[in-house]
Amino acid sequence: MIEVKNLHKSFGEQAVLKDISVVFEKGKTNLIIGQSGSGKTVLLKCIVGLHQIDAGDIIYGGDIYFNKLNFKERKNIRKQMGMLFQGSALFDSSTVLENVMYPLQMFTDLSEKDKAKRAIECLERVNITHANDLFPGELSGGMQKRVAIARAISLNPKYLFCDEPNSGLDPRTAILIDNLIAEITREFNMTTIINTHDMNSVMEIGDNIVYIYQGENEWKGSKNEIFSATNDHLNEFVFASNLTKKIKDNMQ
Question: Within a 10 A sphere around the Cβ of 122, how many other Cβ atoms?
Fold first, then answer.
């Protein structure tokens, strides 16, 4: 579990996040949604420590005040994090196997044999086999995302952070990646936080959703509650998609 309490973040005189409070639950897919410029990416970066917050608290596991830790103490928590970046962020000059082994090289004292074994296990978990010696440029976008997920789970993390994981993928592949993230979240019992503006993802895997509007969290709920929400800004965001309009019509 990760709890954000009364978080404020400004850049200069511009207030980007204003009194954000939200709980991200363990074993569930927690989504941060909102329009571009709403502050959702800044919120995710604050949670992982890429931005220093101005006020409030970020609490890991119920009792670890992450924002009050020093650099060394934060490193211990970061060992428990998996990151899935928007563009996969694989190393082009490294093979698939080397990419997945990278966190193991950074944070463990395992032998090279054991590192490779763990990396292969993770690749098999995301249904990638016989690609160990290929380079990212030789893979499709969906395959690259799978490799990135394998790398993210290589340290068996407690926390998984995903920034626009479906960016650049076709709808069918995007759904497969969504479902893979949801499956791994339940399987590893992780606290997964996904930053997205993709309503397909919301309706596919949105266990817990927080909607950010102009730096404030205006609504919280699940994918089953989103259509009955009375927040005007949320409704405008949700029903901008013809797909969600059709889903709502079919539910009535």
Answer: 24
CA distance 104 to 144: 19
First CA to last CA distance, the chain = 35
- Any idea what the Cα angle at residue 107 is, between residues 139 and 185, rounded to 5°? 60
pTM (two decimals): 0.87
User: pLDDT for 213-250, tens place per residue?
Assistant: 999 999 999 888 888 888 888 888 887 754 555 555 55
Containing structural domain, residue 26: 1-80+159-169+187-252
Radius of gyration over every alpha carbon of the chain, rounded to an integer in angstroms: 18
- Pair (145, 196) in one structural domain: no
What pLDDT digit, counting tens, does each position of 30-65 carry? 999 988 888 888 999 999 999 999 999 999 998 999
The reply to whether 72 and 193 lie within a common domain is: yes
